[in-house]
Structure formats: structure tokens, C-alpha cells
Design a protein that fits this description.
The structure is a single chain. The chain is α/β, with parallel strands linked by helices. Among the domains are: about 25-130; about 135-210. It has helices at about 5-30, 30-35, 135-170, 175-210, 210-260, 265-295, 300-305, 305-340, 350-355, 365-375, and strands at about 40-45, 55-60, 60-70, 80-85, 95-100, 105-110, 125. Helix 3 packs antiparallel against helix 4 (about 175-210). The longest helix is centred in the middle third of the chain and has 51 residues, at about 210-260. The protein is elongated, with a radius of gyration of 58 Å. It starts with a helix and ends in an 8-residue tail after the last helix.
């Protein structure tokens, strides 16, 4: 192998390697997504824990884009996420973005389907829903406990002032010392009960927060909250759509009943005329029924008199025999008419004198035709 061939093969291998690298970068890298047409929208969150550029954006679990940039909103407060959505995915105007977080802390923006006919336009800003993590709930509970302890601290200071006032009272009023001591003991007892209740509350809160099962249930509840909120939004949208459909049906029903209300007078008049005709028809049917049920009537006799039925039966049988006997006569008449049509001279005197074979014969030849035959002319003209 010469050096030139070796250099050629090394060059070809380098070109093929670079081409394969480019194909792999285009196939598995972000270059393919950069070449797809996209549009940009802005989503405002009150807080966005775990949100960063390249965070996935999904709709019903399907990836439709990603977060391009996350900035602070100086006007409204909170955070604004600039999101790029693929061109062929259109989001409805009532679709709400929910910021979700997994147990490992991975964040994602999940869009609800929505039912509005209007779609979100490129460059539009919409409001999102921020999640409340378990630590956020614990922090709020800690704030409440700190407030309770501050209240206890202020209460103890008040009791300290009460003690000083009692001492001053003892020094100035020795005669009412027993009564003051008794009231102080009652107050101290009430304070002790209050402190015991507060300690019990703190212990219960610590037990609730420290229980792993409760923490797991709390995590599951918080994880299920976005889905429940999305289903609530879907239910509200479905109810709204049903109300709109019912409104449209009522409008259509109004369009149908309006012409009926305008023509109600003519409809009532026609119904009155129809009822009058029905009443007249009922009277005529009643008269016909009386005629049928009349004992002297023809129909009643035809239906009830067996002798009349037998007579009609015999007449029908006689008529059948008569028709059968008339068939030869009709046949002879047809033959006679056919002979008259063929030889009408049979009706005249010559027919009576000269007989006929009864077969249709060709007409006799004329003298001109006989002379032509004898002369041998075939054209029909004399030579």
C-alpha cells in the first residue's frame, strides 16, 4: 500500500466519521428541535421551585416544548418563564399551566387540555399555578408554632407584671392578702392548664409531622393535588359547555315556537274546522251503521239471509256455465270475422253465387302484366 492510498483512506475515514457524528448530533441532540418551527409564550408563576431552562413542557403527558428562559417579574412579582412550543401543537385559551414536581425534585410544566375555541397566540402571557411542596407546608406550620410560642412569651411577661403588681398589692394592702393569693393560685392553675394544652398540641404536631406514614400521605396528597385541580377545571369547563349547549337549544326552541305562536290563530281555526269535519263524518258513519244494522236493509239481508246467499251462489255457478258455453260461439264469431276480413265479397251477391275455398288467394294478373311476361321484358315497360 502506497502512502498516497493510505492518506486517501484516512481522509475518507475522517469524512465518514464527521458525517456520522453530525447525523448523531442532529438525531439525538437539540439541533433537530432547533430546526422545527416553534412559537413563544410567557407563563407567570408566583414561585417556580426547580424551574430552569430546558425544563420540559407537556400536555396530557406528551412533550410539546421546553422552557427557554426564566426571569424575575419586576412589575407583578414572581417569576416569568419564556416557553417555546412546537408549531403543530396549539393550546386552548382556557388551558392552565401547572408547575409539577416529582418526589426527586424534578420540575415540569403540565398544560390542562382546555375546551375553549380560541387558542393562545404567540407572544401572549398567561398565568400558571405554582405547587406547594411538603417543606412549604412544614414551614407554614413552623411559622404558626413560632407565633404560638411568641404568644406564650408575651403571656409569661404579662404574668410577670401581674406578679409585680401582686407584690405591690401585698405591700400596700396586707388585709386582702389571702384573697389575692387565692386568685393568683387560680390564675396560675389556669396558666398551667394552658401550658399543658400547648405542650400537648406541640407534641401532637411533632408526632404528626414526624410520622413517616403521614409524611408519605402528605407527599401523595400534594402530588395528587395538580391532577385534582386539573380535573376540577375540566369539570367546570364541561359544565360551562353544557350550559352553553342548553342555551343554544333554548334559542333554537324559541325559533321553532315563535312561528307557531304567530300562526296560533290560523292553527286553532284549522283545528276547529277539522274537528267539525270529524264530527260530520262520525254522524254519517253512524247513519251508515244504522242502515247496515237495519233488519229490512239489503246489506243486513245479504249478511243474514242464507237463501239469498244460496241464490247468489247458484247464479254465479250458472254464469260460469254460460260463459263456458259461450266460448265456442265466440270462437266461431272470430273465425267468421277473419273470413269476412279476408274475403269481403262473401257478404255480396257474387259471394253467394260463386263459392270460395276460404283461403286467402293472390289477386289475378292484369293483361298488361301477362303481355309483359310473353314479350320477355324484365323492366316492366314495352320495348
Amino acid at each position: 500500500m502506497t502512502e498516497r492510498q493510505l492518506q486517501f483512506r484516512v481522509g475518507m475515514f475522517s469524512i465518514v466519521a464527521v458525517a456520522l457524528t453530525g447525523v448523531m448530533v442532529f438525531k439525538f441532540g437539540a439541533l433537530k428541535s432547533l430546526l422545527e418551527p416553534q412559537y413563544t409564550i410567557a407563563i407567570h408563576f408566583e414561585s417556580a421551585p426547580g424551574l430552569y431552562p430546558s425544563t420540559p413542557v407537556r400536555k396530557s403527558g406528551v412533550a410539546i416544548g421546553s422552557v427557554q428562559k426564566v426571569t424575575f417579574d419586576d412589575k407583578r412579582g414572581g417569576v416569568t418563564a419564556i416557553v417555546q412550543i412546537k408549531e403543530h401543537y396549539r393550546l386552548r385559551a382556557d388551558a392552565q399551566p401547572l408547575l409539577t414536581r416529582s418526589l426527586l425534585g424534578d420540575a415540569a410544566i403540565e398544560f390542562t387540555p382546555g375546551r375553549s375555541r380560541r387558542v393562545i397566540q404567540p407572544g401572549e402571557t398567561i398565568d400558571g399555578v405554582s405547587p406547594d411542596g411538603p417543606m412549604e407546608i412544614v414551614r407554614r406550620l413552623e411559622d404558626k408554632l413560632n407565633g404560638t410560642l411568641d404568644s406564650f412569651d408575651s403571656t409569661s411577661r404579662e404574668w410577670e407584671r401581674v406578679g409585680k403588681n401582686i407584690n405591690n398589692l401585698v405591700e400596700t394592702n396586707r388585709g386582702n392578702l389571702d384573697e389575692v393569693v387565692e386568685r393568683a393560685a387560680e390564675s396560675l392553675e389556669q396558666f398551667t392548664l394552658t401550658m399543658k394544652t400547648a405542650n400537648q398540641t406541640l407534641a401532637n404536631a411533632n408526632n404528626i409531622i414526624g410520622d413517616p406514614q403521614n409524611q408519605e400521605n402528605l407527599r401523595k396528597t400534594l402530588a395528587a393535588m395538580p391532577k385534582m385541580i386539573a380535573e376540577t377545571h375540566q369539570t367546570i369547563s364541561a359544565v360551562k359547555s353544557a350550559v352553553e349547549t342548553a342555551d343554544e337549544n333554548l334559542e333554537n326552541l324559541k325559533d321553532v315556537t315563535g312561528p307557531l305562536a304567530q300562526r296560533s290563530a290560523s292553527i286553532v281555526t284549522k283545528l276547529d274546522g277539522t274537528m267539525s269535519n270529524l264530527e260530520s263524518l262520525s254522524g254519517e258513519l253512524n247513519q251508515f251503521a244504522h242502515l247496515v244494522n237495519d233488519g229490512d236493509g239489503t246489506i243486513k239481508k245479504l249478511a243474514a239471509d242464507p237463501e239469498l246467499y244460496e241464490n247468489m251462489n247458484r247464479s254465479a255457478a250458472s254464469l260460469a256455465i254460460l260463459l263456458k258455453n259461450l266460448q265456442p260461439v265466440v270462437k266461431d264469431l272470430r273465425i267468421f270475422s277473419d273470413k269476412v276480413a279476408r274475403h269481403p265479397e262473401l257478404i255480396g251477391v257474387s259471394g253467394a253465387i260463386k263459392g270460395s275455398s276460404g283461403i286467402k288467394e293472390p289477386p289475378p294478373e292484369t293483361p298488361l302484366r301477362q303481355s309483359r311476361g310473353r314479350g320477355g321484358s324484365t323492366s316492366g315497360f314495352p320495348r
